[in-house]
Design a protein that fits this description.
single chain; alpha+beta; Alpha-D-Glucose-1,6-Bisphosphate, Chain A, domain 4; seven-stranded antiparallel sheet; 7 strands; 26% helix; ASHA1/2-like_C; SRPBCC domain-containing protein; START-like_dom_sf
Length: 152
């Protein structure tokens, strides 16, 4: 008897030359998120229990509609995640994304992103694995350090 492997939590680390406040703003403000998050415009207050939505670039479609599960601005943000932009992903249960921002020294922060609760969301796990999250985080780092999007 074989058992299917369960998706493990995915953890990513990146050092960014920016303040914790700048990173927090990039995660929670639509003008910034649209420049590194595949054009997605984030809508949230960042307060626990408030909506955390991803809108398509022209705001004609909702790409994600979740809730802020935990927050400690500008150090920690935990949100639900379900990709409404793809019918297969939208059919899965929500997973969870935790953004953890740790100030280091010389105005450098360590950003750790953990995507977990993927046991009931194997297609989501496969989609965001590998280069999925790394492209987002590389774009975030590039934007904050240079002022230019990665794809410019």
């Amino acid at each position: 008897m074989t058992t299917a492997s369960r998706p493990a939590p995915q953890r990513y680390h990146v050092f960014i030359r920016a303040s914790a406040d700048q990173i927090w703003d990039a995660i929670t403000e639509p003008e910034l998120s649209s420049r590194y998050l595949y054009g997605a415009r984030v809508e949230t207050t960042g307060e626990i229990g408030s909506p955390f939505r991803y809108h398509s670039p022209d705001r004609s479609a909702l790409w994600g509609d979740e809730t802020v599960l935990d927050a400690d601005p500008p150090h920690r943000l935990v949100v639900g995640y379900r990709g409404l932009y793809d019918p297969d992903l939208a059919a899965e249960q929500s997973s969870r994304v935790t953004w953890h921002i740790e100030p280091d020294q010389d105005r450098i922060c360590l950003l750790t992103v953990m995507h977990d609760h993927l046991e009931e969301s194997p297609k989501t796990a496969a989609r965001v694995a590998g280069t999925g999250w790394m492209r987002v985080l590389s774009g975030l780092k590039t934007l904050l350090e240079t002022g230019q999007p990665l794809n410019a």
